[in-house]
Amino acid sequence: MLRQLTLINIKGLIGRKASNGKKKFRMPTWLIVVLIGVLLVASFFTMFYEFAKSFYSAAMGWMYFSILGTMTFGFMLMTNIAMAEGQLFESKYNDMLLSMPIKSHHILLSRLIAMLMYDYFIQATMLIPALAAWIMVSGKIGSFFINALIVSIFWPLLTLAIGAIIGFGLYRIFARSAHKNLLKIIMTFGMIGLYYYFTFKMEMAMAEGGDLAPIGNALSKLKFTEWYGKGIMHTNVKYMLLIIGIAVAAIALVFVIVNSFYIKAITINGVVVAKRTYKEKPVRERSVMAALWSRELKRFGAYFTYLINNLMGIIMILAFAVFMIIKGGSLFKELVDLTQGERELVTGLVAGGGMAAGCFMCCTFGVSGSSISLEGPCLDHLKSLPIRTRDIINSKLLFHYSLIAPALLVLSIVLCVVCRFDWKLAACCILLPQAFLIFSDMLGMLVGLFYPKLNWTNEAEVVKRSMAIMIQMFGSMAVLGIGIAVYFLFAAEHIQMDTYYMISTAALFVLAAILYYVIMHFGARKYEKLGG
Amino acid sequence: MLKIEHLTKKYGAKVAVDDLSLEIKPGEIYGFIGHNGAGKTTTIRCACGLLDFDEGEITINGRSIREDPLACKMDFAYIPDNPVLFDFLSGIDYLNFIGDVYKVEKSVREERIRRYSDTFEITSNLAQPISSYSHGMKQKLAIIAAMLHEPKLFVLDEPFVGLDPIAAFQFKSMMRELCDKGGAVFFSTHVLDVAEKLCDKIAIIKNGKLIKAGTMDEVKGDVSLEETFLELEREKDA
Q1: Residue A449: which pLDDT band, with cuts at 50, 70 and 90?
Q2: At B164, which CATH number?
Q3: Is there a domain that residue B18 lies in?
Q4: Could you tell me if A377 and A509 lie in one domain?
Q5: What is the mean pLDDT of residues B182-208?
Q6: Could you tell me if residue A277 is inside a domain?
Q7: Shortest CA distance to B210 belongs to which of B2, B3, B71, B6?
Q8: Burial environment of residue A166 by CB neighbours within 10 A (0 to 12, 13 to 18, 19 or more)
Q9: % of chain B beyond a pLDDT of 90
Q10: What ipTM does the predicted assembly reach?
């Protein structure tokens, strides 16, 4: 039974479902996992290679592995905390499983094992590139390799134990809170901020003359990571055994503790749901369009994955704008100096780069692509109301646009002011990203209408993994890439940069208009047939 | 009020509804009964414009649901058997959304929300997200939303499932009140006792075909509706 339960949990974690018999194109789950894995490994390798060079030349290998330990620990812990609520405690299958003759400790254990498998995957995406980078830099495979493999078997047990306990605490807090998603967002961004602070500090320390002593001191204070680094690098058996022993003891202790109140924790009676009592307030009459827009906004705030996935794009755009305010001027000056006074060229390139960055972040914003699918079982209800199809589609398009357009506009204005663009370039800098955003919005809606997924059980299926979202994201990126490539391959020698930006803006508006026509004619008909 | 003429709906080769004709007149509570998979829900979904059909015509107050769906939808309210509402909204947000869609005036809306939510005793829960509601509470909220624009026609699919006895009683009174004011109710049910006590007219459907329709007396005669239904089922099987 434990084996079956564990397999079901792992399948659930990677989003695999039984086929419904319909022949429909679906991207295989293994392919998605491999693609994500390759992307992560490649990006971590670049980072670890730089670290390895610095630490190897300073003969401080243990610190390198300590950093690896800290990073794997941090990532796995973040994942465990984030997953604990849904995977360990608030699973929708709790009632069904508890009604069956299954021992509660089997339910808990199977869920912990599934999370552990996920941890191994995360660890591998960092461990593999880190070991590869060290082997390449040092030119040999030493005992550190075997040591790292042994420690990596037990290291996730420690994060799992801590993650499960913190996750349970948060689960109780969230259950009592009326602002569950707000708390989660603060926590997520706090963790992301911490990660960037950590890597930024590392890179600064290495860039500033390679003085690694402060890092060493900091890592020595964190006993576990010191043991991890020295255990692996110096084959310090005592430290390795300490890690293994503590990890095994921690997970066993957490298992015993959580198991002792598990049934109480996962049943409704164990949770005090935050209750808001209704107090009558005057209502506000709105147009149908405003009501639909507001409904989209409420949904945006209600589904955490939907919210965090799309909020990231907005935050990144604003963060980039802040970065340009702080560093833009000096960066611009440095570039002008570097090109020996080619101010016009630098202006054009900075404008292009800034716009491309803004557009790229728009690609990660998938509201319109997932909007139709998110209606799910409510689609029939929406269709039973006297609302025109075009109003429903327009409200979704408008919602996508209105959420990210202000951030994009802020970025454009910052670029214009910081880099002092002339009026032509400024107009392009404001209009081109907006045109791209509208195009991406339309593309998302179109693919959302043609590849809807209405029978989802968790919004992550449509927000992260659906065909529509993939096409919207990669399709928009492809258009952006083609635009950049065409300029450098064919147009750079023949036309001015600002002329190219104007042509691109016009082309994007035309493309968006064509897509809008297709949506309103063929897409609307497709919508009317959905759900039946 | 609602006229279904020669309705045929096919799912591929399977005929779900076969040449079905019904007319629900103002003032009538019309019950629609049949076994599971008989075609009740398909007929109701076609009548509400949720499902396109292959042949026939459906009109609501003389307007075709195919040609003028928005005007038709303004006239009726539909409550499905399993009310899947927008669970990311709170109860009050949902009612306001419905009020905006049906363009219910502010003061009228406030008064009706107050009245109906008090009637169904869910006023204190209106600030809660719908996702936290029980099935019965969702059903009550769906009824309040349906009453918000005081439709001329109610189209209901198994409306009493999940309702507590008091709410079911209140809702039956509302249905009768609506009909007394010249409205009409068309609903499907498996609960034959309810249908017998509540309906003015009844239609029995089997395998997509209408096998009997008329006033309660015409359909059941001197025996109970349950006996009539079982007898008709047996006859057709034979």
Answers
A1: very high
A2: 3.40.50.300
A3: yes
A4: yes
A5: 89
A6: no
A7: B6
A8: middle
A9: 55
A10: 0.87
3-state secondary structure A486-523: HHHHHHCCCCCHHHHHHHHHHHHHHHHHHHHHHHHHHH
Could you tell me if A364 and A479 lie in one domain?
yes
Residue B130 per-residue DSSP state: G
Candidates A285, A286, A289, A294: best to mutate against B (most CBs of B within 10 A) is: A285
Dist. CA A516–CA A522, nearest whole Å: 10
A315 and A184 inside one domain = no
R_g (Cα) of chain A, nearest Å: 26
Alpha-carbon span A368 to A376, nearest angstrom = 14
Q: Which member of B92, B101, B113 has the closest CB to residue A387?
A: B101
Same domain? For A205 and A87 the reply is yes
Over the stretch A354-388, which tens digit does the pLDDT of each residue have? 999 999 999 988 899 999 999 988 898 999 999 99
Tell me if A283 and B106 make a contact (CB, 8 A cut-off): yes
User: Same structural domain for residues A428 and A471?
Assistant: yes
Distances (CA, A) of A178 to A154, A188, A271: 38, 18, 13
Q: Indicate which of A176, A303, A384 best probes the interface with B, i.e. most B CBs within 10 Å of its own CB.
A: A384
Is the confidence at residue B30, as pLDDT, over 70? yes
Q: Do A279 and B102 touch (CB under 8 A)?
A: no
Residues A357 and A239 occupy one common structural domain = no
- Whether B199 maps to a domain, the answer reads yes
Letter string b/e over residues A100-117, b meaning 16 or more CB atoms within 10 A of that residue's CB: eebeebbbbbbbbbbbbe
Taking 50 as the threshold, does the pLDDT of residue A18 lie above it? no
pLDDT of residue A183: 78
Q: Which residues in chain B are contacts of A290 at CB distance < 8 A?
A: 100
Task: Number of A to B CB contacts under 8 A, please give it.
Answer: 101
Using a CB-CB cut-off of 8 Å, the residues of chain B touching A284 are: 96, 106
Of the candidates B88, B101, B81, B94, the one whose C-alpha atom is nearest the C-alpha of residue B32 is B81
Q: Is residue A7 part of a domain?
A: yes
Please indicate if any CB of chain A lies within 8 Å of the CB of B91: yes
Domain containing residue A126: 2-15+27-270
Q: Are residues A341 and A443 in the same domain?
A: yes
Please say if the pLDDT value at position A26 is more than 80: no
Domain count, chain A: 2
User: Is B220 part of a structural domain of the chain?
Assistant: yes
Residues A465 and A501 in one domain: yes
Range of the domain at B212: 2-83+152-237
Q: Is residue B8 part of a domain?
A: yes
Residue of A nearest to B53 (CA): A532
Distance separating alpha carbons of residues B204 and B216, to the nearest angstrom:
11
Q: What is the pTM of this model?
A: 0.79
